[in-house]
Design a protein that fits this description.
Strand content: under 5%
Number of helices: 19
Order of helices and strands: HHHHHHHHHHHHHHHHHHEEHE
Number of strands: 3
Shape: elongated
Helix content: 55-70%
Distance between the termini: 37 Å
Structural class: mainly alpha
Strand order of the largest sheet: 1-2-3
């Protein structure tokens, strides 16, 4: 099946206004359901923008987990697209983003023929097999069982290969940086990954996104696009350039990383929305009752107040666990560390072969 005949172009292409309408409609529908059951929950109901912020956070975590598991770029990209499509029809107030993220990544592994054993995956991600698989049918139905996703990676590879084959033209032109295939491919690939955190996949075709990423990373782009597409006519070429500029603008608006302070606040609202009794217990606490004597700060433990007030846990409330898994190529260590204060969450301890969940917000409370 060609891209022009795919479900992607038939069912999953929208303009900006249509996307906004779908998300607002989904948010409002679930808002009404919540208010009918518990009117007092209104202060903790998330807005559409707050939902998008939390979804963006988990999209970035999807990429990190996939990289730590040495999964191909197509797997992580497909999983992120699944997450985006799922939340066009569902609210994170209904289905928590942690398990949706893990289930989408697991489904994407199967779609892209990169199967993972469920027990291994469950052990690594600290989610039970049933939690991961129970959402599969719900996700598949929301996706209309449209599982094949076309990404910008393939057209990008073709464009760079074409440039490399004609390098004598571009390398001998003043003002154009000589083409190095691997270098250009890696830098362009990072731009494609950044595009996954925008709505470009809904608004533009993969080849346009690929050309925009090439434009951002190579100074010979203008010469290349004229040579490549001038036979289609100036009007078509101008239309392509206009769309390419729109993609570049969208990418410029994608933050380098989520604002963790904003994510914490949104996540805390979601905790109280799903667990109203937690908010009640918090409101009943009297900060002036039984004040504790000040003690010298300890380097080996946190204060009880810090631990009690921390609702944004990753694993168990006072423990951490490390699992080392050996593959044929390398050893990958994934560490799940409980957060005892806000400072731990904002610290960055992730390496290329380690997934450290100190930044993973509320993995258990949003189930």
């Amino acid at each position: 099946m060609s891209y022009n005949e795919s479900s992607q172009i038939k069912n999953w292409m929208f303009n900006n206004e249509a996307l906004k309408k779908l998300r607002e409609q989904c948010n409002n529908q679930h808002k009404q359901v919540i208010l009918e059951k518990t009117p007092s929950s209104e202060p903790n109901i998330l807005s559409t923008d707050e939902e998008l912020s939390l979804i963006h956070y988990y999209e970035t975590k999807t990429l990190e987990i996939a990289m730590a598991l040495n999964l191909p770029d197509k797997v992580s990209a497909t999983a992120i697209i699944y997450i985006k499509r799922f939340y066009l029809k569902n609210s994170i107030m209904q289905y928590g983003p942690k398990l949706v993220m893990l289930s989408c990544l697991f489904i994407a592994c199967k779609t892209e023929d990169n199967h993972l054993d469920i027990d291994y995956y469950s052990n690594i991600t600290k989610a039970s097999p049933s939690d991961i698989t129970n959402l599969e049918i719900i996700i598949l139905e929301s996706l209309n069982f449209n599982l094949i996703v076309y990404h910008p990676f393939r057209p990008m590879y073709g464009y760079i290969l074409d440039i490399n084959d004609n390098s004598s033209i571009y390398n001998n032109t003043n003002g154009i940086t000589p083409v190095k295939f691997e270098t250009l491919w890696e830098t362009c690939k990072k731009s494609i990954q950044k595009s996954l955190f925008s709505d470009c996949c809904f608004e533009f075709h993969p080849q346009i996104i690929a050309l925009a990423c090439l434009n951002l990373n190579w100074d010979g782009f203008n010469m290349y696009i004229e040579n490549k597409f001038i036979d289609k006519g100036q009007e078509v070429l101008n239309g392509m350039i206009e769309k390419i500029n729109q993609v570049k603008l969208a990418l410029s608006n994608v933050p380098d990383k989520p604002d963790l302070e904003v994510v914490r606040k949104i996540d805390r609202k979601l905790i109280f929305l799903n667990n109203p009794e937690k908010e009640k217990r918090k409101s009943k606490k009297d900060p002036n009752k039984n004040p504790k004597k000040k003690t010298k700060p300890s380097t080996t433990s946190t204060t009880n107040d810090t631990t009690n007030n921390n609702d944004m846990t990753v694993a168990s409330s006072s423990s951490s666990s490390t699992i080392t898994t050996t593959t044929t190529e390398q050893t990958t260590t994934l560490t799940t560390t409980s957060m005892t204060n806000d400072q731990e969450m904002s610290s960055n301890t992730t390496t290329s072969t380690t997934v450290t969940d100190t930044e993973m917000v509320n993995l258990d409370s949003t189930n």
